[in-house]
Write a structure and sequence with these properties.
Number of helices: 7
Largest sheet: 7 strands, antiparallel
Radius of gyration: 27 Å
Distance between the termini: 105 Å
Order of helices and strands: HHHEEEEEEEHEHEEEHEEHE
Strand content: 15-25%
Strand order of the largest sheet: 1-2-3-7-6-5-4
Helix content: 25-40%
Structural class: alpha+beta
Length: 371
């Protein structure tokens, strides 16, 4: 009996040792083949941004399928914030940063959403995402997609998502922008569902437009306007007299939170910029630039070279904002429109605001008083 007991103990020791040896071999195989790292990286993506990160467009956005995610500490300023990076060794990879917030929270800093470049040529331009999404593509020194999904069950509240793409190359390519657009729109949709915000989402993005305005090839006669400048066709003669007979525009999109129209000089320089902001974008724009508008500060100093209006819109208690600025050209350190016409500016922004309001069911367009 003692011999049998001793044999059983020996056998148990052998089995335990063999089991540990097998575990070690399995672990070594997982490490050496990269399977463990792959599992760990996949898990990080699943958990990113409070588990709301959509992964459908990540590979295209970052031009890689080797990705990992990490959380960013916003100090409670946002619902969630995370980043996705490439993991290929020896390759200078890219980073995609995603930020989620409520429109009712404190407006974001200018490092996240800039509105102070609206007077610098076409620097403030935004292209609509399209496909029914209330979103835009803007240039922050890098491509950024912003989406604001109104909560149908909570008036004047929207889930706002931002995606900043920092890549070593190809950030302005069609596939990268489309991937970025997919990640942000689909993440916003998943986050809205998680946090109890019922939304109307658009269709899956298959193409996201690049920012093209500023290129002389985009200039055309005001009389030919069909998109975001269509409201000013009847102003063609007065616009020409004011030194801006041509335009640069994006396709009309009644879902976009920001709309741009640029009036262009005979030298194909943007002379006036018209901007419309809605909902969360209107609130954030006023938080950034409202004081300047009310106190009379234009592009470079207290010059009053702008005109603006507001309107009431159905989904939000936040009024829509419409602004016309005389633009400054930093390349030449001059104003392409030498003589600002307050009368033309007021007429142009009123026509722009009336047209935009009609398209979106907004009412009570009011010109703001100048200081």
């Amino acid at each position: 009996m003692q011999i049998n007991s001793r044999l059983r103990r020996i056998h148990a020791g052998w089995y335990a040792g063999a089991f540990i040896l097998v575990l070690g071999i399995v672990a070594q195989v997982l490490y050496s083949t990269g399977a463990y790292d792959s599992w760990r990286h996949d898990r990080s993506l699943d958990q990113a941004c409070d588990g709301t990160l959509a992964q459908g467009g990540l590979d295209a956005a970052l031009s890689s399928s080797h990705l990992r995610a990490g959380s960013l500490d916003s100090g409670g300023a946002y619902l969630a914030q995370c980043s996705v990076k490439t993991t290929e060794s020896g390759v200078r990879g890219g980073t995609l940063q995603i930020t989620l917030r409520w429109s009712s929270d404190t407006p974001p800093s200018d490092t996240l959403a800039r509105y102070d470049s609206d007077t610098d040529g076409v620097e403030g331009q935004a292209a609509p995402l399209g496909n029914g999404w209330p979103g835009i593509v803007i240039d922050q020194g890098f491509p950024q997609v912003m989406v604001a999904l109104d909560c149908q069950n909570q008036r004047s509240k929207a889930l706002v998502a931002y995606g900043d793409l920092h890549a070593s190359n190809g950030t302005n390519s069609g596939p990268a922008l489309t991937g970025l657009g997919r990640v942000i729109t689909e993440t916003a949709q998943q986050a809205a569902a998680k946090y109890g915000c019922r939304v109307r989402a658009g269709k899956q993005l298959t193409q996201v437009p690049a920012l093209t305005l500023g290129n002389p090839r985009t200039v055309k006669a005001l009389a030919q306007a069909q998109g975001s400048c269509a409201a000013l066709r009847e102003q063609a003669s007065t616009a020409a007299e004011s030194g801006t007979p041509s335009i640069m525009e994006y396709p009309a999109d009644t879902q976009a939170p920001q709309v741009n129209c640029y009036l262009v000089t005979p030298d194909k320089k943007p002379g006036y910029g018209l901007y419309a902001y809605y909902g969360a974008a209107a609130k954030d724009f006023l938080a950034s630039e409202g004081r300047n508008l009310k106190e009379g500060y234009g592009p470079t100093h207290k010059d009053n070279d702008y005109s603006w209006a507001t309107a009431k819109c159905p989904q939000s208690t936040q009024p829509a904002v419409f602004v016309l600025y005389r633009l400054y050209d930093r390349d030449t350190d001059t104003y392409p429109v030498r003589h600002y016409s307050a009368q033309f500016a007021a007429a142009a922004v009123k026509a722009f605001a009336d047209h935009e309001a009609k398209q979106r069911g907004c009412t009570d367009v009011r010109m703001a008083s100048q200081p």
